Amino acid sequence: MRSQSWRMGPAWLRACPVTWRRIVGCEACISGWMPRRPWTENERGRCGPMTTQLEIDRFSAGYGRIMVCRDVQLTIERGEVVAVLGANGAGKSTFLQGLAGLNDSQGTIRLDGTSIEGLNAAARARAGLAFVPEQRGNVFPHMTVLENLAIAGGKGASGATRELIDEVFPALEKYRTRQAGLLSGGEQQMLAIAMALMSEPAMMLLDEPSQGLAPTLLRSIAASLARLKQGGITMLVAEQNRWFAGEIADRALLVGGGRLTPEE
User: What pTM was computed for the model?
Assistant: First the structure.
């Protein structure tokens, strides 16, 4: 089991060489998979800390007048993976849904420096915030795997994105002509994550991706997300499973009493 890396200092000092190069845009890996936002001339070929991907200030989320999460302040750097840990009903899903624009919220949300709190869920997705909900059934069951990916890709994902999906989720290539409804729960979860990747998002919100998975599939999903992390994908992951979170996250936050606090 990999150690819980969020205990070991700033994320940008811990990043593996592959992640590091993809984040800062060194010329050596410009030909590899790139995040959605193009590199600026100042970013190419230089080394330094990651830039901010998501900034949340005095953010609260809930339903009507009931705010489940209150006054959250959080900054996530480009290429960083942050886990939000808590028991069932603690407010993890409410927090992610609020960021995605799916419930009532207030406060500031900046994605790549642009305020998105005034946008609805569809507009936030177009801005680059991809959300994979907790519940299963996030696929079109009567369509094949390829058809699901095609629909999610809209005008069409780049060849590099398709190659990344094939590399990270080889089972989907194996079952590309199978109806999505015939896949196992873990395979459907892989497909849901792959569908989110087809939009080439700036950042992914994953709500309990390990829920209900058999141990073998749990390890497979963890390995897949770790590979996406190596590819420079920024992720905010809500989880109850601490082992799973420790396999993929740079640091963790605890949800309790409507607040988010750093994991000690």
Answer: 0.80
